[in-house]
Specification:
alpha+beta; five-stranded mixed beta sheet; 18% helix; 300 residues; six-stranded antiparallel β-barrel; single chain; Gyrase A, domain 2; 31% strand; flat
């Protein structure tokens, strides 16, 4: 599946370089080779994985991917990752900023199932192209969409081909730094579990509700999240907001002078400031300001 060949064609505000704006335009790429990459194979793998994660994996085809979560029995998010169908199994792509590796979390559920978990983090490389529907042609590489970043497409290849492909891609595309990717993410309103969530958060409380397929069959933690969705509301929500000035992660939010939440991510892009903020349910619709006096408004 993956071989060689020649190429043919957080804790504070993020201030990005020019590559951040180019990501959405399809003119830049990000090297995600530091991400965890866990191969899942075996005769029972499709049904076993589908029964545990929040995404509906039924009907997936090679080259397709789905963002998903692993929840605790009480519905709290334990891990967020992308499941990529490689044609001969699945590859789980996980942000290394998450404290708990997904294979370690899944291992206790294998038991007698015909399932194998293999850490391929050192053997594979991943390049993300958030603004493209297809990656550049690279013989031996495998496309996977949507990207683990949340939009666009990834190219998965052998680690031994990483530097050669990175050099070739760099001739046609800008290389996005970690700061660039973070600024693009925040401006796009994409939640990052390792940054925008607290221990014990339900998916709907940390901006990850879209990773839950409520119509699918049972999955770990389903009853708890379904109860909140059907019978009430979450304690808080993650909002994408535009800021009137510089903001920083960790700043408190106020609504009519009362504590309303916290900025979890902040970044400047295209001359504007954007934040992701954890806001109490009751304060989600009101006028918000940071503790330093910066006004916040929904991104229109």
């Amino acid at each position: 599946m993956l071989g060689g060949g020649r190429l043919s064609g957080g804790s504070e505000a993020r201030t990005a370089g020019g590559a951040a704006e180019l990501l959405s335009a399809g003119k830049a790429f990000a090297d995600l080779s530091s991400w965890r990459k866990i191969a899942v194979s075996g005769a029972d793998a499709p049904g076993w994985l589908d029964a545990l994660v929040t995404a509906d994996l039924d009907g997936m085809a090679p080259g397709r991917a789905r963002r998903t979560l692993l929840l605790s029995p009480t519905g709290a998010v334990l891990a967020e990752f992308t499941v990529a169908d490689t044609g001969d199994g699945f590859l789980l792509l996980q942000d290394p900023a998450q404290a708990r590796a997904v294979d370690e979390l899944l291992e206790p559920y294998v038991l007698s199932s015909d399932v194998r978990l293999q850490d391929r983090s050192d053997g594979l490389a991943v390049f993300a192209f958030p603004g493209r529907t297809q990656p550049p042609k690279a013989p031996g590489g495998t496309a996977s969409a949507p990207s683990a970043l949340g939009a666009g497409v990834d190219l998965i290849c052998l680690a031994e081909d990483r530097q050669r492909l990175r050099d070739a891609f760099s001739e046609a595309f800008a290389v996005a730094s970690e700061e660039d990717v973070e600024a693009w993410r925040v401006a796009s309103g994409i939640a990052r579990f390792a940054v925008d969530a607290d221990d014990g958060d339900l998916p709907m409380e940390c901006g990850l509700g879209e990773a839950v397929a409520f119509a699918k069959g049972c999955f770990l933690g389903q009853e708890a999240v379904a109860k909140v969705r059907n019978l009430g509301h979450p304690r808080r929500v993650l909002l994408r907001l535009a800021a009137s000035g510089a903001a920083r992660a960790g700043e408190r939010l106020l609504a009519d002078g009362v504590d309303a939440g916290t900025v979890t991510s902040a970044a400047a892009l295209g001359g504007r400031w954007y934040v992701l903020a954890r806001v109490r349910w009751e304060a989600r619709s009101g006028p918000l300001r940071t503790s330093s006096g910066v006004s916040l408004a929904p991104v229109g």
